[in-house]
Amino acid sequence: MKHTIKELEDIASQIRRDIVRMVHGCQSGHPGGSLGCADFFTALYFEVLNHKKDFSMDGIGEDLFFLSNGHISPVWYSTLAHAGYFDKSELATFRKLDSRLQGHPTTHEHLPGIRVASGSLGQGMSVAIGAALTKRLNNDNSYVFTLHGDGELQEGQNWEAAMFAPFHELDRLICSVDYNGQQIDGPTKKVLALDSLQAKFEAFGWHVINTDGNDMQSIVEGLHYAKTLTGKGKPILNLMSTQMGAGVDYMMGSHKWHGTAPNDEQLATALAQLPETLGDY
Amino acid sequence: MKKYTYTEKKDTRSGFGAGLHEAGKKNDNVVALCADLVGSLKMDAFIKDFPERFTQVGIAEANMIGIAAGMTIGGKIPFTGTFANFSTGRVYDQIRQSVAYSNKNVKICASHAGLTLGEDGATHQILEDIGLMKMLPGMVVINPCDYNQTKAATMAIAEYEGPVYLRFGRPVIPVFTDPDQKFEIGKAWMVNEGTDVTIIATGHMVWKAIEAGEKLAELGIDAEIINIHTIKPLDDEAILKSVKKTGCVVTCEEHNKFGGLGESVARLLTTELPTPQEFVATNDTFGESGTPDQLMSKYGLDAVNIVEAVQKVMGRKK
């Protein structure tokens, strides 16, 4: 371990503070999913991912990460800033005119850490597969990680990709699903039920693991374990149960905070629950 | 009228296949992907020599475009191959977000474009693809006119950094361009110098424009014929120079006149040099089953239609 669990939890707390402040600052954005995935991003970037500080688009010899559900950009931007990709003061520009921190992540403004645009859902797994194929051609044994929303799996392209990856034995591909059971119009169970994602992915030929995405120990161990599963010819799916809005009591467990910004009073309530550990931007 | 002859007829898709093979020999980073249409896209030679650099994606075009975008990360130059319909309309959002907006070095190679796909009918005969692709910021759009030009274009786009849409077709047509030509993206080719009218043609319509030029010469009309193989970026300079001389223009394309080459030319002329223009193109319609020749005739894409359009536009000259 590069960090203790407590240290990682402290980083996640700062990232959560950044998320609510960023979304409050422009009065738009997606706090719910961002908060729910703060622990995953912390574990990935500060513990699991073998990545270089100097960003290069090609990412030769380093692990890559692709965010498919691009609307949770606040958590990624804050993570990238604290991981050293750019100065954290830039977080204040989120969703504002002339910012590199667009509402949804893009390569267009050349923000270090981003390798493809996402936002229109369902495309990230295919892109990650392509990057993994190129790593194989380049004899580069690094890993390719992704994150997907659970509601996002209603997009058909995911299942084209899910069929392809096991057939081509891409066992250095580690995809995680933010399994919070919520989407814009309500619980996924009511909108379009996903039923057993484990059974679906296993039927497609994936090795499925289950983690608690809001338990730092569980997510760190899960991602480390996922890396040990290579060599068996199966891509790995990390089915990660999370709470939308995790860390802010009034946002937790409801789709209502998928894409709504807190007002001044709500911001103060949220920040009181999230200790400032690394210094606000 | 400059004399053009040919000794053989070939399909432009075979020009793509040959060009892809050459590009693959020249650059190890060239990779190819196909969505279950290897034979139709003439990718066999590439696959035979570079099996490890070919990916069969199956009937999953959206996945193919995403994979191609991802393969650029790490330095590969992916060429995707399927029919034009499935290369564009079916995967528009994947191209828009993962390729164009992300500025990925993907070459979207599209066969069986237009009416000349023939008997399969309108589901497969896309007449809107040039419009769809040229609207994407940063996308280069190329529609070569014969086997040799398609081969040269395929090799040229491998050396160009950025997203490209390369459109070609199914039928065998005359091979009349130089086999050793150097293909310059965005540079018009002067097919015939003339003074009375400018005929601007792309793709399969270039040979028909040559046939029309010969008929027009018999009628005493001296037509300038320009091949625009690169619809975007358009060779503004070549078009304006010609139109200044002739004072009228006919555009010819195997595509809907809504959104095609003709509209690009009209946009240029409206802002720079307002000029009478006629369109030889399909008119807001789907195609249907039939032989390629029957369809080109029924939908008004023959040499005779170009001749009629020239006569009409010359009557509108000031």
UniProtKB/TrEMBL annotation, chain A:
A Pfam match: Transketolase_N
Keyword NADP on entry: no
Organism domain of life: Bacteria
Names of required cofactors: thiamine diphosphate
Keyword Hydrolase among UniProt keywords: no
Keywords noted in UniProt: Thiamine pyrophosphate
Domain Transketolase N-terminal: 11-270
Family that this chain belongs to: Belongs to the transketolase family.
PANTHER family xref list: TRANSKETOLASE N-TERMINAL SECTION-RELATED
UniProt protein name: Transketolase
Upper taxonomic lineage: Bacteria, Pseudomonadati, Bacteroidota, Sphingobacteriia, Sphingobacteriales
UniProtKB/TrEMBL annotation, chain B:
Listed Pfam families: Transket_pyr, Transketolase_C
Record keywords: Thiamine pyrophosphate
Cofactor(s) it depends on: thiamine diphosphate
Cited SUPFAM superfamilies: Thiamin diphosphate-binding fold (THDP-binding), TK C-terminal domain-like
InterPro entries hit by this protein: PDH/Transketolase, THDP-binding, Transketo_C/PFOR_II, Transketolase-like_Pyr-bd, Transketolase_C
Keyword Iron: no
Family: Belongs to the transketolase family.
Protein name: Transketolase
Taxonomic classification: Bacteria, Pseudomonadati, Bacteroidota, Sphingobacteriia, Sphingobacteriales
